[in-house]
Amino acid sequence: MLFLKLERGRKMQTQELKQGINDSIPIVLGYLPLGFAFGVLATDVGMSIVQATMMSVLCFTGAGQYIAIGVLQAGGAVFTIILANVLVNLRYLLFSTSLVPYLKGHVPTATGSILSYGLTDETYAVAMNRYQQHAPTASYMAGLNLSSHTGWIASTLLGAILGSYIGDTDRLGLGFTLPAMYICLLVLMIRNKPDVIVALSSAFICLLIGYLMPATMANMFNIIIATIAAASLGVFISERK
Fold this sequence. Notes:
This protein is an all-alpha fold. The protein is 79% helix and 0% strand. It folds into two domains: 2-172, no CATH class; 190-241, no CATH class. One of its GO terms (cellular component) is plasma membrane.
């Protein structure tokens, strides 16, 4: 009897791991051109192949890594890169906090904390979409997050290796890949009228902040402010239903 339970548990973990990997495929396909372009730009500013690849291993934040490249190109200080990354990536604090009610009681805290290192905008959206119908598991998180991270690292390595053979990445149309991927993820998350209201509100707030504030400050704070404001609106709408 115990053997059968263990066998069922092992099969379930394997299925969850495979499902996580399968769900990561669209994310990995979106990461390929972005990571590739980052690898090209990283070598262009003087990074070695190892440095560019290790940056993707240790940081794993597309926006933050591109910011780092921009600061390096402008001759900025390392402190500026660190501060900008902290501000831009504060949204992950909100993301991880919103996952806690789903993970609690299903995924051990230590395991969830380690696997959350792979949390990105894309993996968050895919995971939240699944958690509406299925209980979270460590195996699913591992399949989703680790596969996505591996795809990002591999594409960075490829871009860094081939960087010397490519000039202008903009002519390849890679710049629109990230917005296109975000649009697809947003569509997957919208299920009813309140979701539409929250999505449109957050977009409007982002644009408003970008218009009213200097570009540098807007780029650092608009996502955080818009997220908090739109999430508060979502809670208010939910309580009124």
